[in-house]
Specification:
single chain; mainly alpha; 62% helix; Transposase
Length: 89
């Protein structure tokens, strides 16, 4: 039993060493204020689903991606860049 545990531990250490460049430094990310969890994305998916299912709304497979593109641009502060006719001046 001890040998199995040792073998498992050695395999895990080897895995970590092999993949260390791909494993995020979560402590550094948290200190930098980077959101780590998926809650924000899951919340956005729920919000989009609610908007698509609004009574009387008429969405098609063609216009949903365009709407998401505009919403993403707006939230990223890029809306006027993606919509040149909205630029002032």
């Amino acid at each position: 039993m001890l040998r199995d545990a040792t073998d498992s531990a050695l395999k895990f250490i080897a895995y970590l060493q092999t993949h260390r460049t791909r494993i995020p430094d979560y402590q550094a990310l948290q200190q930098a204020g980077v959101t780590i969890g998926s809650g924000a994305v899951e919340s956005l998916v729920k919000q989009i689903n609610r908007r698509l299912k609004i009574s009387g709304a008429q969405w098609s497979a063609h216009n949903v991606p365009q709407g998401l593109k505009h919403r993403s641009a707006y939230l990223n502060g890029d809306f006027t860049r993606s919509q040149p006719w909205l630029r002032v001046g």
